[in-house]
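Hi P.,

Sorry for the delay on this. The queue was packed all week, but I finally got your sequence through. Input first:
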Amino acid sequence: MVPLVLAFHTIASLVWVGGMFFALLILRPSMPPLPPDLAMALWRRVFERFFAWVWTAVVVLLVSGYGVVFFGYEGFSALGMHIRVMQVTGLLMVGLFVLMWSMPWQTFRRAVDEGDLATAAAAMKRIRLVVAVNLPLGLITAAVGATGGFWTY
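Then the structure:
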């Protein structure tokens, strides 16, 4: 059962981190030709869909991660350093996402819906900052998860 749970854990992390990579390094640099109102409307639609997947990923990651800790390792005492690092970086990522979703995303969403581009742009900067912090955290977390079992070799 643990391998199946870890597969879901890995897929959830790929969805979240891959989505941030796409948004920051692929979609954002492709946006300048669009007029600001269209760009903001596109971001709103992209984020609406992506954040639903991130919420799903967060639930899957927390349930599967702690499920493996308690049912695969029988608690925290047997955890390797790599799992402790993943826990800290993962919880930091979740905290940043929840903060971003609760404040700048809600501001951005309302501003775009009301046609207030200045407020939307200001909120977008804060969203981008969280993504710019969470992306390297996610990449580090994934690398630690993939290699951590080999740290003792």
